[in-house]
Every structure is written in C-alpha cells, then in structure tokens.
Protein 1
Amino acid sequence: MLAVLIAATLFLQQPIAPVTPEDSLLEARVSALASTLRCPICQGLSIEDSPAPLAKEMRAVVRDQLKAGRTPAEIKAYFVAKYSEFVLLQPEPRGFNLTVYILPVVLLLGGVVLVVRVARKWSRGASGVLAASEVEQEPEFR
Amino acid sequence: MNWKRAVFGAALAIPIVALLAYGLTQDPRLIKSPLPGQPAPPFALVSMDGGENVSLTALRGQIVVVNFWASWCLECRFEHAALSETATRYRDRGVRFFGMLYDDTPENARKWIETMGGQSYPTLLDPGLRTAIDFGLWGVPETFYIDHEGKVADKTIGPVSAEVLAGKIDRLLALRAGGT
C-alpha cells in the first residue's frame, strides 16, 4: 500500500509540460475544424468524434496545416480535393446540395399553410353548426 | 374541388418520388474520387524490409500500381494472389507494383505475407497514414493506377481481380506506347 502511495506521489511530481494559451487556441481551432470533417471509415461521425486511427491522423493533418499557417478554408479544400465534397459533414450550399437547404423550408411552409387552411375550415364548420343549433334553439327562448 | 386536390397531391408526390427513384439508382457506398486525372500525390517511403527507398517522382515513365492493404483486412486475402501474379507478369514491361501498409504493424504484415505464400512486390510503410490520406483512402483494400506521366488514371475499391488489373494496366501501356 505504502509502495503504491509513494509511486503515486512520485508520478504526480513528474514535471508536466505547461499548456500555453497558444496551444489551447490551436487545439480549439483544430477541434472546430475537425468537427466539420467526416471520418471516411465511420458512419456519420466527424474526425473530431471518431476514435479511428485514420480520424486521429486526419486531425494531425489539420493541426499541422493550421500550424503551417493555412486557413480553415484551405484545409477544407485540401480534404475535398482528396475525398470529394462528401468529406464535409455540412455540404456547401450550391448546385444539387441546395435541395438539402431549401426542401425542409418549403415543406415546413407547406405544412403551415395546410394547418392554417384546415384550421380555418374546421373553425367555419364549427361556427356553422353552432349557428344552426342556435336557430333550432331560438323558439325555446321565446 | 377533387381535381384540385389531385393536382396538388401529384405536384407534391411526383418530385418526392422522382428524388427517391434517383436515389435508388445510386450506390451509396460508391463515392466518386476526385483523384483520377490529377497528378498522383508524391511519396517517398521505405519498404517494409528496409531494402528500398521508393520515390514516386523517380518512377516517372513507368506504370505504377499502388495497393493499400492490411493483415487484418479480410478482403485483402481475396486479391492477394491476383496482385502478386499480375505484378510478376508485367514486371519486365515497365510496370511497378507497391503494397502500402495501412494501419498495421510490420510484424503482423510479415506474418500475413508468409501465410499467404509470399508477395512478389515490395510493401511500403506509411507512417502517420499521410500517404493514405493524400490518396483519399476510404478503406482497404483500394488500388490506384498511376500512368507514365505520374497521374492517377483510375482506382479500384475493394478486392481486385487479375482480369481487372490486366485490363487497366494494358490500357495504360497502350497510352504510353501511343505517346498520349
């Protein structure tokens, strides 16, 4: 038990390389960019979230390229040139990709229009029935 | 009123059905690589046995076949004989074959080659999978065909047969002979 405690104390006393603000900033940039890139061998995971070795090495490429001064757009372009646009988790809004952006809005608006029309129809039907029942009940009030 | 409903329903359903029908004609596993027609990503790597430093640039003028594989890859077993035999068959015609070890240890790879009865071409080590990423690798096995000008001419996803290999190499040899 004592030996374990001593070993743990010695381990904790090991000098740890200090994390500079620059390191933290770089890691945050790597993380942000890696979250937008698809892991090629996974099912819908980003290279940030995937534990696969290929994803890990792709993150290393992102880190190296950011360190070399490349912009996120240039790094994305590098991966697109290798893997096609499929490597982007969020496709660029152009060409056929626009369907992904426009169709949900169109369907949502269509749904709203449909609900409003049906609600109006029901409301008209209900008031019509009410009016008819009022007419029927009128003689009783007289 | 009914015909209006029918037109509205058709206007809504036809594009959706057309979109789904188009989707059925596509193979979701098949993603078109942007590499064919582009210059092959250059690499300078050491062979697994340490006996050869291979630079793709130095191989300009030759047809180069690069096959990414791993000992844990089941499908790699199905293509191994075809690759080895075709490499031997085309060796004297200016065609070089290279294996590219993917996410594996040299020890496991050597044992696997021994089990499979040998490999007639060198396998290169790819530290950090940088060459695999440069080639836009989606998995193993994948085979890339590089023409005499150093451009990626084509690629095969999955196990490749001797017929496919021969067909693609013959086409590249014809292109080289034609000087185009």
Protein 2
Amino acid sequence: MADADAIQTLGEVERLRERTRDAVEWGWFPLLIFGVAVLLSAPFAWIDDGAALGYYWLVAGPIGVAVTLYAVRTLEIRAGVLDRHEMAYAVVIAAMVAGAIIVGWTADGVGSDVGHVFPIGAGLLVIAAIDRSALAAWTGASIIGLGIVLLIAEPSNADGWVALGEGAILITAGVVARRSAVARGTA
Amino acid sequence: VTHPALQLDDVVHQRVRLGILAVLAEAKRAEFGYLKDALTLSDGNLSRHIQVLEEAGLVSVEKGYEGRRPRTWVSATRRGRTALDAELRSLRELISRVDGRP
C-alpha cells in the first residue's frame, strides 16, 4: 500500500468520525433548557426565603431533565445516529447534581449561595473532555470564573447574581452551539 | 518484525467497511439510512458490506420498527472497535515507515 493511499485513507476515516461526532452533538438543547430554567430561578432567589428557590428546583429540575431526555432521544432517532457517551453523561450529570446539593448544604455564608457552581462548572469541563468541545470547556470555565468573582465580591443576594450570570452563560453557549449545528446542517 | 502492510486485515481494510467501522466508532449505533448517506452507497452495496462485517463478528445488526417504519440499526462490537484501532495503528505505522520516522 502506497504512503499516499494510507494518508488518504486515514484522512477519510477522520472525516467520517468527525461528521458522526457532529451528528450526535445535541448539547445545545440542555444548555438552552437549563439556561432558561436558571434565569427563571432568579426571582425566587431574590425572595427572602431560602425555601422558595428549593421548591422551584424541585419542580424545574426533574421537568428539565425529562424534557431534555425526550427531546435529545427524539432528535437522535430522527438523525439516525445515537451518541455512545450517554452513560458517561449520566454519571457526570449525577455527580454535578449531587455535588451542587452537598456544597449547598455544607458551605457557609456566600459559599452556600455560590458554591454549587463549582461542581457544575467542573462537570462541564469533564463533558468538554469527553466531547472534545471547546465550547463546553469555555462554559465550564466561565461558570467557575463567575463563582470565584462572586465569592470574592460577596454581594448581597449572591444566589440571585449566580442565577443571572449562570443563566446568561448557559444560554449564550446554547445559542452558539445551536448556530454552529445549523451551519453544519445537523440541527 | 512484521511489515505493517502485512498487519492490515482484508475484512477491515476494504474502503467501505473501514468507513462503516469509522462511523460506528463514534456512535452507540447508527441507522442504515445514516450509513448510506454518510458513505454515499446504494442499499445493496451497503447491505453486502454490513453482512461481511457481521459475519466476521465486527458489527451487530438490530432490526425494528419506529411506528410503522422499519429501521435497521448497526453497532460496532468490541471486536469491531479493536479491529478498527489495530487497522489505524498499522496505517500510521506504514506512513511513518515510508517517511523514515521511527
């Protein structure tokens, strides 16, 4: 086999793999859904009653997960290709949720309002590594950066600022990912 | 030491079959129509190559329905993923040997 043939074959294999990775890239959907859910939580964060935000997420969280699972599976079946990392995503997302809850319970002061963003940002960085996604890495790093800024600034109603900042970051990432998918013809 | 060209597996090395395994390496499973479109093949041609891969134990095929529409899903077996990795390793080795790289 000639060197040029081997190079061409490897190039073709990589092109097909990349095309398939693009075809299973539905990350924009949960980014938009949870971005909107986080933004909508801001008014509950400003109500001076810690329970209001908890009740909001008790309802919005499971609805967001159910809608995302249903929509992504429907989109995958329509595209004719299913993501092979779904178990890895489930483990990472479960760890993000558990981490956020534990930090929220155990941290004091501003940390109890802001701390949950660190497991969420870290989880997004893990997803970025799985997906080889620069956008997911930017999203995770931005959320961690937001957390650090708010921990240092210690504003009043820190959880409200978290909701606004985190929601804006997730929606921005979702819009960018969706536009990129539309441009590739895979949305 | 075996020359890397002799390590290439004829079942995997064929262009279309290598393409099928390349797609399936990135997916839990892919539908027949997706493979046909990605590889720009006719139904009959794709079916023949999938059959060769299935007989070699490199892919598994699952037929079902989505509503009334019949759908055929194909996935790479563990052996299929290993065979693809070995093939790509041999190709890279071949290139570095021709280029004179270690």
Protein 3
Amino acid sequence: MKDPIHIDEAALRRVLSGELRGEEARRVAEHLGDPCEACDAFLASRGKADSLDGALDLALLERTPLKSPGPDERGNDLEWARIQRRLRPRRPAWRLAGFAVAAVALLAAGVVLRMGSRAGGEQGWDGLKGRAVERASARLRFSVSLPGPAAPVVERAASGAVVPPEASLLFRVEVSGPARMALLRLDPEGEVIWEGRAERAGAIDVEIGGRPAAYPLRGLAGRQRFALLAAPTLDAETLEAARRALSGSGSASAPGPAISLDLVEVTVR
Amino acid sequence: MPQVAPRSGPDRNRAKPNHVLYLERVTSITDGEGARQDAALVARAAAGDVASQRAIYDKYRPLVFRVARSFAELDPDDVADVVQETFVRAFQGLSRLLDPARLGPWLLTIARNRALTRLTRRRARQEAAEDLQREAEARGEEAAEMADPDAGAELELVRRLISELPDGPEKETVHLFYVEGSLSAREIADRLGVGKSAITMRLERFRAKVKRRVLAEVARIRGEESTGRGKGG
C-alpha cells in the first residue's frame, strides 16, 4: 500500500495548474476525499490565496443573505470617492516643495477656524447676508443618520454631539457666495472626503455623483473632526497646503482673507 | 460537458481552470447573464469608464466586505482599508484580468490576499514585498490553463459539509458567519466570548475542509480525463 499523498504547496500548485495526471491524480483525489487533519491544517494556515480561494469564497458567501446586504456592507459614496482619489495619478514629487511653501504662506496669512467657539454651542450665525468676504463665508452643518427598523432616522445635530458608531453623517454647506469647497476629515492625514462648488450663496447638501453622501462612522472611535474649506478659488496646491496645515497643527486662529474654514466635531461612542 | 464561455481577446482564448468552472456553476453572480454583464463592465471600466467602475464596486462591495470581515483580528479600520485597497488594486489591474467573466472570484482573491497580508504584517511585521509576490503568484495561478470538469453540486457540498460538522463551537461559528451572515467574525468572537484568533481559525478550518473536498473533485476529474474515462461520465 502506498503512502497517502498529503497536499502541500507543490501538490496544490500541480492540482490547480492541471499538471497532476493519471494514477497520481486519482490517488490525490482519493486521499483528499477523506478527512485529513494534515491537509486541512495546511490549507487552513497557508497564509496566501490562490484562484480557487476567490471562487470558493464566492460560493460560500453567496449562501449568506446577499440579496439584502446591510448598510455597512453596501458601498457608500464617500468610500467610493476615496477609492477614486487613490486611483488618480500622484502629483510629481517636485511639487511637494511648492506645497510646503504654500502651507507656510497659508498659515502666515491665517485661516478662520472657529471650532473653539462652536464646540460648546451655536455661535451667532446670522445668515449669509452681510457677511464680509474676508470673514467666515462658509458654514458646515450636519445631520446624523441612524439605522431604523424600516428606514434610516435622520436628525440634525450640532458640533460636539456624541453619536454611536453605527451612525453616518450627512453634511450641508452654507456659503455666502460663489465658492469652491472641500470637506476634510481631520484624521492624521487630513483626508479630503468631498470637493464641490457653489455658484451662488445658499445651502448645498454634500452629494457625490448626484446622490446624497453619508459619511459612515463605523470603525471610528472618539473625537472626529471635519473641516470645510471654502474660497472663491481653491486650487489643488492651496487645498493641499490647507490640508497639511490643518492635519499638522490642527488649529489656526488668525482670520485671513483667502480661505474660510469651519469645523465641526463629533464624538463617536 | 459544460461549455467554456466565449472570450474576445487572444489571451482569453484559453480554457478556464476546471476548479473555477466547477464553482462558477453554482454561483449566480458569475453565471450566464451575470458573467456577460461582468465582462462588459470590465471592458468599459478598464478603459477608464468611472460609471462602470462604480457598478463593479456596488455589485461586489458586500462580498469583498464579507471576505475581509471573516478575519476576526482585523478591526473595522482594517476591514475598511482592505475593501478600499481591493478595489484600488483591482481597478489598477483590470487590464490584466484574463477572463473578465471571472471578475467576482478575482476580486475576492485580491480581497483575501489583502486581508491575509494585513494579518501577516500584524502578526509578524513582514515586508510589504511579500504581498506583491503573493498577488503575482495568484495571477499566475488564475491564468493556468485547465480542462473543463463535469458539473458539480458545489452548493450542496457546502451545505452538506456544514451539516456534517459535529455539534460544537466550530459548527456554531460557521453557522453564524456563513448561514446567518449578519455578524462579522469579530462580532461572533464577542458574542461567543472567545478570542478573535480562535474564531478566525474555526472559519479557516471550515474553509479548508471545503477546499479539500473541491480539490479532491478537481483531482478526480483530472485523473479521469487523463485516462479518457471522464468525458463520457
């Protein structure tokens, strides 16, 4: 009687590639058809996936209730935006020096950051009319969306709110005039999660691809800060400089004429 | 004998690996019309059509997410990163997908490799080059040419394997993850009050059993074909 043919890296490759033939293939089939601790242990701890794994996962996972994926399973606009952002060609390295200079210039000019006054309550935002251009000309508002039994429950919220991790944030921007805008999550990298443009003063719901965008908080914990930048022109270099400034220092206090900046904070708990 | 799906390009004019056909037969996403839709989406997405990329993302995101969250040691941030990395790498490499109709398994292979890479780094702090090597190997394996198998009732096999598991923690874990499907491996660990790595291992052991049975079937078909006994059944 021949020894059993346990599956190993070489045997697996031969099975998958079709090199295994004849009598040897039949012996392998016979062996693998019966329980084998050694083979199961090898396959369970292999640490890398082959093409069979993808097909196997598809077969296994299709058994689960895929027809109605949960809210955390479905795609969302902001994640999609992040994927698209990562697919864009990277800026050439030689421009980084320019960004650094711009960041310093931006900080020197100052940006309007009103987080401190908003975290404790609503400041006197008296509408858009009459606001000087050089003052805060944009405001970031948000609602909290929570899964409900039949449909999500959406409630307006203010900076400083404590929200559960299953919540998503729906943002609304109010601007005092034509502006280009960017919404950043002030994680360590200052990730830009949305960019948009207003043709006139008014309120704009943050949408991506024409659909309302909800920022999921699942997986986040503790204080989360979101910043809105707005300016009549907001080119890539300025945005990058602001992003770096915000993610680096996290605060700037002197008002400046170039960029309006508003910030909200939630605590995920 | 099942037919190999027609392909358009010269590189695609090859037989699908038999284990792939074996499994595709029982998956609705890659069957017939679904496969044709995927092939069309891949062609457009590879040409830079963002709407087609989005359609691929919307269709497969739940499955990619489920693969990622089958590893209990990965926290929600890791899972989110795995999902993003999977689609970024997939869209960057769509032109290398030899058979566009195999989009689903290909995406899930990338997802599993991304998850395993994170797990490996977390466990052993290994070098980033390793996962590049893995994906290169996976691509090579995906391109391997194999003959068609006879039809197999894979879904039935999975169902039977679950029912054959002796009552106990492994069966409970597999049932929660693969049958009920609403909990992540991490959440199952919390619910059952056991360590995260134990849950990952239970799920991986179950997958290994299924994979072993599929490999047995593939090897059996290969053995019969090579001696001319498989074609006629």
Protein 4
Amino acid sequence: MRIAVTGGKGGTGKSTIATALAFELAKTHSVKLVDLDVDCPNDHLLLNIERHKVSDVYKIVPELDTSKCDKCGLCADVCKPGAIVKVNSRYPIFFVDQCSSCKACFLVCPHQAIHERKQLCGYVYKGMKGNLELLSGEMLPIQMEGVSVIKEAKEIAAEGKQEFIIYDTAAGTHCPVIHALMGVDLVLAVTEPTPLGAHDLSLILSLTQQLGIPTRVVLNKHGIGSDLFIRDLTENNGSSLFGTLPYSKEIITKYSRGEPIDHPKIRDMTRKLEAML
Amino acid sequence: MKINILSGKGGVGKTSISASLASLLSKEFNVVAVDCDVDAPNFGLCFGLTADDFEKEKISTTEQAELIVDRCSECGECLDSCAFDAISWNDGPEFNPFLCEGCGTCQIVCPSDAIQLRKVENGWIGTTNGDFPIVGGQLKVGQAGSGEIVELLKHKAERIEHEVMIVDSAAGIGCPVIASVKGCDYVIAVTEPTPSALSDLKRVLEVVRHFGIDYGIVINKSDIYPEYNDQVRDLALEWGVPVLGEIPYDKSFVDALVNFSPPVVYNPKLKPFFVKIIENMSLYIRSQVM
C-alpha cells in the first residue's frame, strides 16, 4: 500500500506524522519511508538516521558543437523555459540551470549540432532505523530539477516487496507535490486548526480530487486555534478525519531532538492503515 | 527597497513575521507587500483578507499540448518524445494535463502537424488594500508555472508607489523561491532552533548567496531548544551575518492567526521583538531608502 503524507501548508506536521506512522508500522510490517521533500528533506533528522548516498541523479542538458552550428537560432525559438539565448550573429548560449530537459532543441536543430550532456541535479540517500528503511531525495540548490530526484527516489523505493511505502511530500501544491502524489493509493492531508491550515487544506483536497486519489485528513496540533475551520471543510470536500494529534510540549521536544513521536493517537492511525491492507 | 522573508522550512513563522514587519513599517514608510507563495497564499489571511478581496486578473503563463484528431496518423512519435511521461496511448495519444509542461517537443516530432499548443489559464494575480497594498496571486491547483507567476507579482508590485516592498516567499528552495529572491535588496531568513529548520536554512541560504544578496537571521520560537539556539547564533557568527532578532515561543502567534490579525497587532507585548528586528535592519534600510 502506497500512502502519501502531504498538506499544502508548510509546518503543519507532515514529516512528524509521516515519520511517526512509518516508525510505528515498521515494528510489525515491512515499511519504506520515502522523503520526497527534495527541496528540504528532514525525515532523517527527525528519526536521527545517518544517511548514505545510493544514487546520483542527473538531468539531460544541451551542449553545443560549434563546428556544426550555423547560428540559425531555431533552438532558442523553441526553448519554452528561456534557457537558450541567441543574440545577433553569435552562437546560442545555454543557461542549463533553467533547462527542463525537454529535448526540444536537440530535435529542432537541423544540423545535429546539439549533444546531450548529463548534469548532476541531486542525490538519493538511504538509511535504516531498526526495520524501517528510509530513502531520502535531495536536489542540488539552484538546479530547479526536483522532479527527476522525486522520480528516482520513487523508482528505488518500488524495488523489492514491502507492505507499506510512505511518501512524505513538500509543502505546496505545485509540480514536486503532484509528482510525489502520482500513483499512490491513499493521501493523508495533514493540517492544523488555523485559518491558514484550512485554506491550504482546501487547495490540497481540490488537487487530490482532480487526481482521483482517496484522501483523509489528519488534524495535527489539535487543541490550538479552532477545529471548526477544519471539520466543516473536510466534510464539505467529501473527505473525513483520519486522526488527530494533540499539540503538546512533549511532542515538540521529541521533534526537536530527532526522536519519533510515540503516541496513542499515532497507534490509532496505524491500526486503521493495517486494516486497509 | 525590497526585503525578502524566507526560511526553507515551512511553518517557522515567515508569514506571521512578514505581516508584522509590514504592519510596523507601514507606520513610517510607504509599504507594499507581495505574497509570493502562489501555491498556498496566506499573507492576506493574516489581515482577514481572502481571495474574494483581491481585484483579480486571470493570467496564462503556460501552454499545453492538444491533439487535432483528424490530422493524427497514430504513428506514436509523440509518445516516445515526451520527457515528462505526459503522453499515454489510448487509440491515439492522450495528454495528461498534470504532467504536460507545454515544452512543444511532441509538436516538433509530429510528422502530420496534428499537435498544437494551447495557452492555459493557470491562475490569477491581484491587489487588495488593507493598511497598505497587498499584491498576491494563486496558481490554479494542479497547474505548473509558479515561478512565472511570482515574477508577474513582483512586476505588479513594482508599479505601485512604495518605499519598502515586503516579499513573503514560499517554503522550499525551488522555482517559486528563486523567483521571489531574485532582485531583492535584503533577505530576512527566518528559522527556529531545531535540526530540521537549521538544515533547511542552510539550503535556502545557498540560493541567497548565489544571488549575492545581503541577509540577516531571525530566530523564531527561540526558547524551544536552547542548545540549538546557540548553534544558530554560532553559525551566524561564522557566516558573518547578524541575528536580527529572537522571538520566544508565544501562543498568541496562533491566536493572532485565528483572529485574522498580525501577531504584532493582536498582541502589543510582541512589539519590542519586531521593533528590534527593524532597528537592527534600519541602518541598512535607511541607507537604501533615503
């Protein structure tokens, strides 16, 4: 069973919930936890896991063979991200940080003057805590190529057999989150009882509805703010509450020190997940 | 001058702090605020302003592939060309709108000229007025192009008369954050004393340094883990950047959100913390504004 933990807003407790569920489930099941917040992966810090690199992730970028280029400028015309600049009678200049690896320039060049070059854009790391296997994707800053790292981490996670794969996603609703959610069986949307939490939860519920993925809501920091924001919204969007986790100083302290949250409310949720297997 | 507030990690207090600083600065300067979190925009909510309060214009910064069915020879060239796995085969090509980036590669390889690119409306941008103008927008859920929308927001804010622009970034270090940092004069990097927040701070500062922008650090919830607070201070010293302020954990941050008010307005006791941040920045601000 593949479960994605997401939420829209940052800091609602996605990683706290994902690590706690994975750690608890791993006591009696085969579990992989996959950190797909490739901008800012934190699961290894929350679980105090020493990671080691298992994969370099590359993106394909263009490289010009000036001996074949006749400076026609077609490559710059087709480049939608604006990664190719062609000025007057000069050779085109490639800004590979902006390149999305679509390969349009390779195909449009009438003289085969553009070659593929591999550029490092991130890593996938692995680590263990007891029976729990963690895979952790991390993109290189400035490269703007999180999606390749997410795909690679998901591919590595799919190897072998396990009862649960838990994907921990980034904040937001944009491409890295969409790619993390693709192909999962269940989304757990983590939120907090504030207007900001509610607003961003409504966006993530709308996204998972469009993607057609069953989604349940986890209300974290229960007790601060007001639950009303969340309960109505959850029901109005055809979802339902999957679990709650109270706001407590003890949980924050554990979080700060890299210890998994061990709480009866977490066990309530893992029992529900076991029943879905 | 443009002041950017970012953090890498979400939920450390970027928006609460941005809203408080904007609110305080607006007493002395002409302020415009820009909410660059177009995925999950929350800045306006701190003032009780929702999407309905914005004067909106629809925007289109992306395109998507579309099949002209009667021209398609079902050769399958497009299927192999797509680098984003956005094309599947079901008696002909089908384009997944969530994966198509509108790169046009399939259009280039199609021998029958059967694929066209269509502009898609992928969001809105707009302005609303509280104590000062707020520019914000929303990427349509499931659409691509957040970086481009952030660029548009900043252009829009630029055209509003101001002395200080407060730019509230999204979480992370990806396209929307890069777009919001670019061209700013100063960055306030908000963090909290936890291993996660510190790790994310280091990553987002790589982006800030890449653009050569001066920055200072604000430690929010500074008392939740004292040993780590020392680590953040030591790092700032090592980097040669100022710790502009430290704000102890205060439940009124949450109460302020629930009451649609920036923390500094909701709880005046918090004012000294924010005044100190501004004072520590003020030499820098004044040298730019005056």
